[in-house]
Design a protein that fits this description.
The chain is α+β, with helices and mostly antiparallel strands. Helix content is about 30%, strand content about 15%. Helix 10 runs parallel beside helix 11.
Length: about 725
């Protein structure tokens, strides 16, 4: 349920590996601590775990996205260098860097059709072919987090680069003890050097808490994740920039005894869940994989009892499929939305979907139809006089500085898709409610422009009626150091959809074109339907639907976490709470539950905006307006925490006691998303270099020469 839980599970799987470990990542940081944080020697670092595994004879293969560094840096070159430097013992290590395989031409930088704008975005770990991890969590800085979502940095737990916040600038130089942490011991690397040898200043800067979801799979579906790895590796091996990389051959795999540990995918697993592994992949990638399928080998599901006729049939099917992009994640999302009877819960890092033009008459950059499908689900419920609700939880804005084009552009389009665009979800719902009202009365529906229905709704007293059907939320926390009151958004990085507490989709795909349309980012997700605990359930307002244990338990655990019910350590921020009044976890569709959650989120946002000056709010006409409070001597300075509202200042300093007393009234982490934030921008925030699919830039850690005293200068 947390980054801490996930990374501990991965660490335990690596420690138990006997034959092989396969890792894919958009970003993998070699020194990320998977567990045992604060323990002397930091034995839970990824490098330590992999070196120990190779000493036992385990073979490690890692696939990393080969980033276009002028667009975004994912540290892949440094990570490869460090992983390749590890002692291999009786095992082996190979790291492959892969450019995205979209079928687009690599053309002039700035062209909207350039392959440079897309990435391999899958995040998987496969151990011995019997267990696989799938989801949104990279083995990277900042992702390790707990139910507490603490914003206060503990340098023993959040070491160097792991004290992470993409919304601010690093505030202090490394100290002598931190420099020692970068030393190599024998042939094993220390922690990575931070950029410019600067880190966040724990006395006055917050870390960015991280909300994400990932899944551990055991049984037949783990084989599909394994096959995805082999298909990607072998389709790139020996070609283009990977011409020096060798394939994962059957003879190599047989020699290490890999086949012996593989799951037989044609045998039913011992669990109660059905798991379908879905991908986003281009037709170019599918065509490149065809030769691997034609050769058969250990990637076919009949590897244990070969069936040539079956293989030939499947190859012909794949040859036919290869003419189209693989969009099975998008298809699973749309099919689940269309099947929804009661409610949909979404957590996603992005929400960029076709919503017509924005309120500046600029056409939406997205073509995917997720907003349309969600709108249609509500329309069907309205016409059937049936209760229905959608909860959407997003970050306040995508990771990065609001002054950057990529961050501002994607934040803008999330606001347009939810509320302000021509065919935004909320605007569509308002329009459908008006249609239904006039139809029921036997009257003709007045013809209006899309924006005209907002005015008509106000005339009819229906301007807030959409709230019965959709709630848009963020998460936020606070805390304090000796002298400063801190706050930061909880960064929603999840790629999660739960429908009717019956189906859960967990993976790496965002709600945007680059993740969903096939010819963009390479993605992987799992659709989970649990046969256990399936029951006709009263979910509120008289609606009875079939819910299932896995999805139902997952949604309730997430809500308990976000309500603050699962806080599990001492903190200066949100304390452990009981279930908020009015909320029925098992009947989310009850009117009282919907209203109580919304009222709680509204009240929480109001308190944050009362104490802090810079937190996003509807009254900010521009997206970066709150950043003005970071200015010192007229210049933007993101290395500190700005003043609080004057009522919570004393003698020019934060009045910690008074601010803490007010913030103690906040219940849980949910806050209302400010849907009018930035509505007075003079024009649509442009995407960087004209590329609407770009993601925010990251800093790259500086890796200096290895000191002579380590004795391994020759290896770097």
């Amino acid at each position: 349920m947390t980054g801490k839980d996930y990374m501990k599970a991965v660490a335990d799987a690596i420690r138990g590996a006997k034959k092989f470990i396969f890792i894919t990542g958009w970003q993998v940081d070699s020194d990320v601590e998977l567990d045992q944080r604060g323990v002397a020697g930091h034995p839970g670092r990824l490098t330590e775990l992999l070196a120990d595994a190779m000493a036992r004879g385990v073979h490690v293969r890692v696939m990393l996205y080969d980033a276009i560094n002028m667009a975004v840096d994912t540290h892949e070159e440094i990570t490869r260098t460090r992983l390749d430097s590890l002692p291999t013992g009786k095992g082996s290590m190979k790291v492959m860097l892969q450019n995205a395989n979209t079928g687009r031409a690599v053309v002039k930088w700035g062209s909207k059709d350039s392959n440079a704008y897309f990435s391999h975005h899958q995040k998987t770990v496969i151990v011995d072919g019997s267990v696989a991890f799938v989801g949104g969590i990279d083995l990277a800085y900042g992702r390790w987090d707990t139910n507490t979502f603490d914003v206060v940095i503990d340098p023993k737990i959040h070491v160097l680069n792991d004290a992470y916040n993409g919304q601010v600038s690093r505030g202090r130089r490394m100290n002598a003890e931190e420099v020692k942490l970068t030393n190599w011991v024998g042939h094993r690397p220390g922690f990575m050097w931070p950029p410019k040898r600067e880190v966040l200043n724990e006395s006055c800067q917050p870390r960015q808490p991280w909300q994400d979801i990932a899944l551990r799979i055991k049984g037949p579906a783990a084989f599909d994740v394994f096959v995805n790895f082999v298909l990607r590796w072998n389709s790139f091996a020996g070609t283009g920039t990977n011409f020096m990389d060798g394939a994962l051959t059957k003879s190599w795999f047989d020699d290490l005894g890999g086949t012996q540990s593989l799951v037989d995918p044609l045998q039913k697993g011992g669990g109660t869940t059905t798991v379908q592994v879905c991908r986003s992949a281009s037709s170019e990638q599918l065509r490149d994989e065809l030769n691997i399928w034609r050769r058969g080998s250990y990637v076919t599901d009949d590897w244990k009892q070969p069936n040539q006729k079956r293989r030939e049939t499947l190859v012909k099917t794949r040859e036919a499929w290869a003419g189209e992009h693989q969009t099975s994640i998008r298809d699973a999302m749309i099919n689940s939305i269309r099947a929804a009877q009661g409610y949909i819960y979404i957590e996603n890092q992005f929400f960029v979907s076709d919503c017509g033009v924005d309120d500046k008459m600029t056409q939406s950059p997205a073509k995917n139809q997720i907003v349309h499908e969600l709108s249609e689900a509500v329309r069907r419920a309205i016409n059937a006089n049936r209760p229905f609700h959608i909860w959407i939880v997003l970050p306040e804005h995508p990771e990065g500085l609001l002054e950057d084009e990529a961050t501002a552009s994607q934040a803008w389009w999330a606001l347009q898709g939810t509320r302000r665009g021509q065919h935004a979800l909320i605007r569509n719902i308002t329009m459908y409610l008006i249609f239904k009202k006039f139809k029921d009365a036997g009257d003709s529906v007045p013809v209006r422009t899309a924006w005209g229905y907002d005015a008509l709704a106000k005339e009819l007293g229906m301007e807030n009626k959409w709230r019965d059907y959709v709630t848009v939320l963020n998460l936020r926390n606070f805390g304090h150091t000796k002298d400063f009151m801190l706050t930061e958004m909880v960064y929603i990085h999840s790629k999660l959809m739960i429908v009717d507490d019956a189906v859960a989709i967990i993976g790496s795909a965002n709600v945007n074109d680059r993740s969903l349309n096939g010819n963009g980012d390479t993605e992987l997700a799992a659709v989970v339907v649990d046969d256990s605990g399936a029951a006709m359930t009263d979910v509120g307002q008289g609606i009875r639907i079939v819910t299932r244990k896995f999805a139902r338990d997952l949604r309730m655990k997430i809500w308990k976490k976000h309500f603050g019910m699962s806080v599990d350590q001492a903190t200066t921020g949100i304390k452990k709470q009981g279930l908020p009044a009015g909320i029925d976890l098992e009947r989310p569709l009850e009117k009282a539950s919907i209203k109580a959650l919304r009222d709680l989120a509204v009240a929480n946002r109001k308190i944050y905006n009362q104490v802090f000056l810079h937190t996003p709010r509807d009254s900010f006409g521009t997206l970066a307006e709150g950043r003005e409070h970071y200015k010192r001597k007229g210049e933007l300075d993101l290395t500190w925490t700005p003043p609080l509202d004057p009522d919570y200042m004393s003698g020019g300093k934060h009045n910690i006691a008074k601010a803490s007393a007010e913030l103690a009234n906040i219940k849980g982490f949910f806050v209302e998303m400010p849907l009018q934030w930035g509505s007075k921008e003079a024009k649509t925030p442009p995407p960087p270099l004209g590329a609407s699919t770009m993601i925010a830039r990251n800093e790259v850690p500086a890796e200096p020469e290895v000191p002579e005293t380590t004795g391994i200068t020759e290896q770097v």
